[in-house]
Amino acid sequence: MSSSSLHQRQQQQQQQQQQQLLSDPNPLSPPSNSPFHRPFAFLFTPTTLLVLLSLIVVLGVFVPWARTPDSLFRGAGDRSSPAAAAAKWRDYTLAEAAAFAAKNGTVIVCAVSEPYLPFLSNWLISIARQKHQDKVLVIAEDYATLYKVNQKWPGHAVLVPPAPDAQTAHKFGSQGFFNFTSRRPRHLLHILELGYNVMYNDVDMVWLADPFTYLQGRHDIYFTDDMAAVKPLNHSHDLPAPGKKGRTYICSCMIFLRPTSGAKKIMKKWIDELHDQPWSKKSKSNDQPAFNWALNKTAGQVDLYLLPQVAFPSGGLYFKNQTWVEETKGLHAIIHNNYITGFEKKIKRFFEFGLWLVDEHSYESPLGRL
Ligand SMILES: *[C@@H]1O[C@H](CO)[C@@H](O)[C@H](O)[C@H]1NC(C)=O
Ligand SMILES: *[C@@H]1O[C@H](CO)[C@@H](O)[C@H](O)[C@H]1NC(C)=O
Ligand SMILES: *[C@@H]1O[C@H](CO)[C@@H](O)[C@H](O)[C@H]1NC(C)=O
Ligand SMILES: *[C@@H]1O[C@H](CO)[C@@H](O)[C@H](O)[C@H]1NC(C)=O
Ligand SMILES: *[C@@H]1O[C@H](CO)[C@@H](O)[C@H](O)[C@H]1NC(C)=O
């Protein structure tokens, strides 16, 4: 349900309009490095030379700090030629990228294609407010995203080849979409095998508080329920009972894993389930049912932890039950904009709930203005 809504795309036109809306040209020009391009004869008297020298020292010390936040986030990447930078990022491996992004042995990952850059930036602003942005690694699903993110925020995006076919990867219910989401457990398993804790998020999420404080104990895997029905505050942290379809409705949108054999077992099972129940015209599945079957089948062998609903509500609860939102005010950690399909509708809803941050707060985003 999560990814379904996330990847449901509207027509190309609307996206382009959206991107135009969001891509105001940056009015700030890069700082000039050489204010002294014209040597004049008077410069050669000892006094002016001394004055000049002190000026250069002062500028050298202070100018780097006086740059705009946008340019501070840029690294060496964008000073080299575009072709050299492109070659560098094209060959950047998941192992290198995870080693760069991981802090305290933990990486936060998402998977993003170009039309979702505004959502990525929105999500990043909310993470920056909780001071966890340095751990973020963006798994780019196309080369445009890889280059753009790394140009603005060097080292924080990686592409695991082959890039999914952009034409077929995003239509919800299509085989291309299924193939695209099927990559998720592979990426997560790879990161676990490299030895990191990993938190996966869909980018149609906003953090209101630090989710890491909820990852209590030493369980293998932490996840959230995608159901909309209100649960008691003291609900159990075990896997819920299966629903109507004989399986649970755990969200594949927000998962935290420790690099344990139990967590790896679930990711392998998820990959197997995706193989065993491949996409068909009839089922038009995404990756979430397979994840739930993997949880069901490994339940006895893996240490699972269901996160509290009050902190991690589904979009079906948060956006649809105002009474509940008011009753539980201050207890929410991550809000997921699901139970709705369409790029524009998601933006509108985030906007109406004060969760669309990219327009007014782009300076807080590690990506700056897009
Ligand atoms: C690293 O982990 C320790 C122990 O869990 C924690 O106290 C500390 O705040 C963490 N540091 C960062 C930068 O996240
Ligand atoms: C999806 O993956 C299958 C198996 O790898 C492949 O045969 C098929 O061509 C892919 N389809 C699309 C639309 O990407
Ligand atoms: C939650 O609290 C209620 C009443 O306070 C109690 O009856 C119930 O057993 C508790 N449930 C759990 C899972 O602890
Ligand atoms: C797994 O699914 C089956 C079929 O719906 C169900 O009977 C069983 O209780 C589930 N197991 C767990 C641990 O949830
Ligand atoms: C909305 O939330 C309130 C307060 O928690 C709850 O009593 C009510 O059943 C919820 N409504 C629906 C439709 O779930």
Automatic annotation (TrEMBL):
- Where is each Nucleotide-diphospho-sugar transferase domain found? 132-350
Question: What are the recorded GO MF terms, alphabetically?
Answer: UDP-xylosyltransferase activity
The keyword Acetylation is annotated on this UniProt entry? no
| Major localization listed first in the record, in broad terms | Golgi
Low complexity: compositionally biased ranges: 1-26
EC supergroup of this enzyme: transferase
Q: Does the keyword Metal-binding apply?
A: no
Name the keywords, alphabetized: Cell wall biogenesis/degradation, Glycosyltransferase, Golgi apparatus, Membrane, Signal-anchor, Transferase, Transmembrane, Transmembrane helix
Tell me its EC number(s), please. Answer: 2.4.2.-
Membrane topology field: Single-pass type II membrane protein
Q: Name one GO cellular component term.
A: Golgi membrane
Q: Where in the cell is it found?
A: Golgi apparatus membrane
Q: Which Pfam families match?
A: Nucleotid_trans (PF03407)
What residue spans carry the region label Disordered?
1-32
Q: Which residues cross the membrane?
A: 40-65
Where is coiled-coil annotated? Answer: none
Q: What InterPro entries does UniProt report for this protein, alphabetically?
A: Nucl-diP-sugar_transferase, Nucleotide-diphossugar_trans, UDP-D-xylose:L-fucose_XylT
Q: Which GO terms describe its biological process?
A: rhamnogalacturonan II biosynthetic process
* Entry similarity comment: Belongs to the glycosyltransferase 77 family.
Name of protein: Glycosyltransferase
Taxonomic source organism: Stephania japonica
